[in-house]
UniProtKB/TrEMBL annotation:
UniProt xrefs under InterPro entries: ACAD10-like (IPR052898), ACAD10_11_N (IPR041726), Aminoglycoside_PTrfase (IPR002575), Kinase-like_dom_sf (IPR011009)
Domain Aminoglycoside phosphotransferase, first and last residues per copy: 30-251
Keyword line: Transferase
Keyword Transferase attributed: yes
GO MF terms held by the record: transferase activity
Lineage, opening ranks: Bacteria, Pseudomonadati, Pseudomonadota, Alphaproteobacteria, Rhodobacterales
Protein name per the record: Phosphotransferase family protein
Superkingdom field: Bacteria
Length: 341
């Protein structure tokens, strides 16, 4: 199945009477950074849009739910959480072969890694601080007022997610990885009791899933809401901390070995403290367990990407194979955090 091209004629015909102000024809350019749902920049006579679609082909159950992405971003449009404006959700697979949605194209800067090597220390500090602000705002969203109170099930979030991602991982498993088996087992033994915190969570909160102003440091939009649900807010916080433990550079996109103070970047503890200040929290309990879980889930995601690459329906086949090599490394890192080492 082809995930690299788009039937622009079919899209233009569909949007002609459904998108106010639409002016075809369309030029489509695929973004190469996405691994899950193929995403295209649409250039039209009336301006630019973004189309995000479900991949064609046989997919894992409950994955690639672009309708959920559309719903949550539409619900957040009038809140303090920065999102792109949603326009149309097409649930008819016959139009281009799979479900898709259309949203505004947000013009700004995207930082592929948190080092932001071409920026000043002051800019880096400002960007990370606004990333922190947006995260706190996300976890303060009124679920009832936004109509999202049913966006995720009740119960222990980590327990539910561990079960879900274990199933996803086993369904896409290609080789036996002892560290992953140990991580799954030990996470099951150390999950904290449910403390009743229940908020909207993004599920993949990191700097490369955000658009910032071309001038300044304000976050204009959080992207890639596929893993969003109702759950425990510390999972998103742990996702940020987990990412920063990885090697710096285009592959790891982390901060390991970086002199953060010299670069204007906060320590893990400083970022967590600022988040707690913004939300009025005393501290973050069991953060190591949440970080270990983040490593586990990232390993599961990479394994799924690898499987799609091997099956021939990955959004970026070459990168899919590279990501697959990280699965055992993520599992080992998760074990280190879980064991307090």
């Amino acid at each position: 199945m082809d995930t690299q091209t788009l039937d622009t004629g079919a899209v233009a015909a569909y949007l002609k009477d459904k998108l106010p102000g639409f002016d075809g024809p369309i030029e489509a350019i695929k973004f190469q950074t996405g691994q899950s749902n193929p995403t295209f920049l649409l250039k039209t006579g009336a301006g630019n849009y973004v189309l995000r679609r479900k991949p064609p082909g046989q997919l894992l159950k409950s994955a690639h739910q672009v309708d959920r992405e559309f719903r949550v971003q539409a619900a957040l449009w009038d809140t303090d959480v920065p999102v792109a404006k949603m326009h149309i959700l097409c649930e008819d697979d016959d139009v281009i072969g799979s479900m898709f949605y259309i949203m505004d194209h947000v013009d700004g800067r995207n930082f592929n890694e948190p080092t932001m090597k071409d920026e000043t220390p002051q800019t880096r500090a400002g960007v990370i601080d606004d990333m922190n602000r947006a995260l706190a705002a996300l976890h303060e969203v009124d679920l009832e007022a936004t109509g999202l109170s049913d966006y995720g099930p009740q119960g222990n979030y980590l327990e539910r997610q561990l079960g879900r991602w274990t199933k996803q991982y086993r369904a896409s498993e290609t080789v036996d990885i002892p560290a992953m088996n140990s991580l799954i087992a030990e996470l099951g033994e150390q999950l904290p009791e449910d403390d009743g915190q229940r908020t909207l969570v993004h599920g993949d909160y990191r700097i490369d899933n955000m658009i910032f102003a071309s001038e300044g440091t304000k976050c204009l939009a959080i992207l890639d809401w596929e893993l969003s649900t109702i759950g425990h807010p510390f999972a998103d916080l742990a996702q940020v901390i987990m990412q920063w433990q990885l090697p710096a550079g285009a592959e790891g996109r982390g901060l390991a070995g970086i002199d953060r103070k010299a670069m204007g970047l906060p320590s893990d503890a400083e970022f967590v403290a600022k988040y707690c200040e913004r939300r009025g929290l005393a501290d973050v309990a069991d953060l190591n367990v949440f970080v270990a879980f983040s490593f586990f889930r990232m390993a599961g995601i990479c394994q799924g990407v690898l499987k799609r690459g091997l099956d021939g329906n990955a959004s970026n086949p070459e990168r899919a194979l590279k990501l697959g090599a990280y699965v055992p490394l993520f599992a080992e890192s998760g074990l280190r955090f879980l064991r307090g080492s």
